[in-house]
Amino acid sequence: MWNLSIPAILKAYIDYVSVSGITFKYTAQGPVGLLNNKKAVHIVSRGGDYNNSPYEMGDRYLKTILGFFGITDMKTIALDNTDTGVADINEIIENGKKQAKEIASKF
């Protein structure tokens, strides 16, 4: 997580692929995503505990923009508390790996 959101280069990439006729289209009923039946996984490490935090905007932004593109099946693997000095970083990483294996088995 960068400044409660996503890295600038990822935002720039999303801006480049947000193209009418490629990732979405306009209809009489409004915009419609063109990437239906696709899946996404967001893997993020965050220094503190931002699970269900109103300050965490990166995961919410990705769910919103991917939903706009038609991708509604998005999973998040969040490695929280990586910079608090309180949590066991190795345990956090191992839990993240377990989550990734579980998601990958159904991807």
Distance between the termini: 24 Å
CATH class identity: Alpha Beta
Rg to the nearest angstrom? 16 Å
CATH fold name: Rossmann fold
What is the helix fraction of residues, given as a range?
25-40%
Kindly estimate the percentage of residues that lie in beta strands according to DSSP. 15-25%
List unreliable stretches of 5+ residues. none
Number of discrete helical segments: 3
**What number of structural domains do the residues give?**
1
Mean pLDDT: 94
Helix/strand order: HEEEHEH
Dominant shape: elongated
CATH superfamily: Flavodoxin domain
Number of strands: 4
Q: Widest sheet: strand order?
A: 1-2
Properties at a glance:
107 residues; alpha+beta; Rossmann fold; two-stranded antiparallel sheet; elongated
